[in-house]
Design a protein that fits this description.
globular, 0% strand, single chain, mainly alpha
Length: 418
Amino acid sequence: MSWKMNVIPRNVLTNRSFLLFFLSQVSSGLGDTFQLIAATSLLVKITGSGMAAGFGMICAPMPSIVLSLFAGSLGDRLNEKFVLMTLDILRAFVAILFVFAHDVLSVYGLLLLLSSLDALYYPSRNKMLTGTLESKGLMVGNSILSGGYGFVYLIGPTLAGIIVGALDVDVAFYINGLSFILSALLISNIQVRNHKGNTYTNRPRKQRSLIKDMREGIEYSRNIPALRNILLTAAVISLGTISVNVAFYPFAFDTLGVSSKGWGIMLSVLYGTSLLAMLISMVVSKKGLRHPLFAVTLLLLAVSLIWLCYGTIDSLMEVLLLQIMEGTLLALCNIFMNTQIQLSVNKGFLARVMGINDIVCNSGKLLGAGCTYMVLRFFSARHVFVMSGFILFTFCIFRLLRMKKMPGNASRREYFSM
């Protein structure tokens, strides 16, 4: 499937429902940046170790492997607006509970609970995007959302670092809770379009089986070659990025000796590049992209080289420059892959497919975190960077060689398109 959408950002932003959805995600995203800095700073303060903080923050999402498929089925069965509002309120409550956490086990427990709610949230969030925009506007919509996340991560971590340093971590947790409440209020005013051909709106409620719904989602994903390739690619990306992210905690705090403010700046640089990715993806949406997965493979090849470079440099400025490139490339991959799924998957299966995608990604994270822990026990963070870069580079080369060996254009289209 190629993309060429004659939709300009102004037309998408005049869509009231999308604008409210965009603002809700920007609000909760800004709160997430405060949560990230505050929780990291709290763990560093309690444990005195950047590595302990890194594993606490990174390993918290792992239990969501169990919940993601259920979350996808839930998103397809229930109204996504109701699901998102309810979960935002629950997330606000959990965020404020961090104020009363003063030991490692309490912090880890709340991180697990918050990440579990996040796992339930994401499939319905992706489904709601398709309910606020026409298909031709999805690429631009994903680009604008990515730019919004980039903006909040550009200013959020730095601002959070300043507030945590000048005031207290509790202030950041309160801000995160308020951001979720604001998000719920914004979502309450959204009008969601009904999906034509939705497999659930046409099925009597008494005939619905949760287990059967999950099995149908898995079978649906298995039967589409390009979708399988997206899920495999997502798993490899997750494995590599989690390894690099875990290694960056001891690398930044223990090797480079950065403060909370400096860590906030590093996160702002990395995630703020989504703004640049937004601009690039909008240009791509106008010119058209014939083979999105092929483009993703080339982008990931460049990312693998950046990770290899992390293992050889010592300058903070060089690290920041590489982060700009890495963040832009990974954000583009995320935009292309999400748009491909949203355009191609039957809307009655969309939340379940996104739930399966979350399971695959979290499984990759679990494997990556485990491998990283073993490497860091005997070697340095630099070895993790080299390991991750080598794995991703090998995957990309294998993917490109497999395409080259395919007999015809039809087979290549089946492999790289949906």
